[in-house]
User: Fold this.
Amino acid sequence: MTIRRRVQAWAAARGINIRGDLRTSKYYPADQSRSKRDTWWVEVPVDKLDSVEHFEVFCEKAVETDDFHHLRIPATYFKENEAKFYTTNGKISVWLSAAKDDLFRDTHPEGRHLDFGRFLSS
Assistant:
């Protein structure tokens, strides 16, 4: 089963209504991530910033688990901070830290290390 389908089943079982654009990320342990840190990788299409209200981001809590962190991130947050993110091929690329000392902080080397923790909903 794909991570997207696992997320949809997990959200439905918890009564979470996915109202925004669905984004998912598997958990990348340090030895498998480009950043060499425990990370989630999320891409947001720039062309959707004006057409959706929120991005519903679900991140695996561990490798191949059916338990997720859920962040509901307003599209306006991406729009207001667009210059602070690394963008390639029309997509904002965010490396969210899974490390306890900077959990949910963008750690992409070309980004400005914005904190997404305040958008955590479950």
In short: The chain has a mean pLDDT of 94. Residues 39 and 97 are 5 Å apart (CA to CA).
